[in-house]
Specification:
By secondary structure, the chain is mainly α. The chain has 8 helices and 3 strands; from the N terminus they run H-H-H-H-E-E-E-H-H-H-H. It has helices at residues 13-33, 38-56, 60-64, 67-84, 104-122, 130-148, 153-169, 174-195; strands spanning 86-88, 91-96, 101-102. The protein is globular.
C-alpha cells in the first residue's frame, strides 16, 4: 500500500460543513417530532464529530491494515446482538452499553467497505477469477446473514447495494456483470414477492 503523510492544508472543509449541516438538520427534525430525544442526539452528534475529525487525519492505509481484525470483531459483535441484544418491536438490533445503545450493523457498513476494498486490492491481478469471487461472496454473506436474521432487512439491502458498488468500482468484468443481472433480476423479483407475502419474517 502507498504510504502517505497527511497534510492539513488538504482538508476538505466543504465536505465537513455539508455533513455537519445535514446532521444538525436531522437533530432539528427529531426535536420537532419528539423533543425528549434532542439532547441525546445532540450529544451523539458532538461525539461522532470528534471521532470523524480524529479518523479523518489518520492515514487510511493504517486503518486498512487492520481490515481482517475489524471483520472478525464485527462478526463477533453481530453474533452478540443475537444472543444479548436489546429487543424492540420483535427485532434484536441493538446492544445496551448502559449509558446508551448502539446498533452494530451501522458499523458493519463501514467495516465491510474497508474489508472488501482491501480484498479487491490484494487480488488486483486475479479479481475476476471465479474462486476469488466466490470466496468474497461467502465473506460478505456471513455478516449479511447475521444482520438479516435480527431481522433488519433495510440495513441488509443497504449493505448489499454498497458492497455491490464497491465490487463494481473494483473492476468486475463486464461479462460477469451481465450474467449477474440475468440471474439477479429474477431472484430480486422473487424476493420482492416474498416480502409482500403475509406472514414473512424479514420485515416486522
Amino acid at each position: 500500500m502507498l504510504k502517505q503523510k497527511y497534510q492539513f492544508k488538504n482538508y476538505n472543509w466543504i465536505l465537513v460543513i455539508v455533513v455537519l449541516t445535514i446532521s444538525c438538520l436531522g437533530v432539528l427534525f427529531i426535536n420537532s417530532a419528539d423533543s425528549s430525544y434532542t439532547s441525546k442526539q445532540f450529544i451523539g452528534l458532538l461525539f461522532c464529530s470528534c471521532v470523524m475529525f480524529v479518523l479523518s487525519v489518520v492515514n487510511y492505509n493504517y486503518i486498512c491494515s487492520f481490515s481482517r481484525i475489524l471483520y472478525i470483531l464485527d462478526l463477533v459483535v453481530l453474533a452478540l446482538v443475537k444472543v444479548a441484544g436489546v429487543s424492540v418491536g420483535g427485532a434484536k438490533r441493538w446492544l445496551n452499553l448502559g449509558i446508551t445503545r448502539i446498533q452494530p450493523s451501522e458499523f458493519t457498513k463501514i467495516i465491510m467497505i474497508i474489508f472488501v476494498a482491501v480484498y479487491i486490492q490484494e487480488h488486483e491481478e486475479d479479481f475476476n477469477n471465479w474462486k476469488v469471487l466466490v470466496r468474497l461472496a461467502v465473506l460478505c454473506a456471513i455478516p449479511l446473514f447475521l444482520v438479516v436474521i435480527e431481522p433488519d432487512l433495510s440495513t441488509t439491502l443497504d449493505l448489499t447495494f454498497i458492497l455491490l458498488a464497491v465490487i463494481f468500482v473494483g473492476g468486475l468484468d463486464a461479462k460477469l456483470i451481465r450474467r449477474a443481472f440475468i440471474i439477479g433480476i429474477p431472484l430480486f423479483a422473487l424476493f420482492v414477492c416474498y416480502i409482500l407475502t403475509p406472514g414473512q419474517i424479514l420485515i416486522l
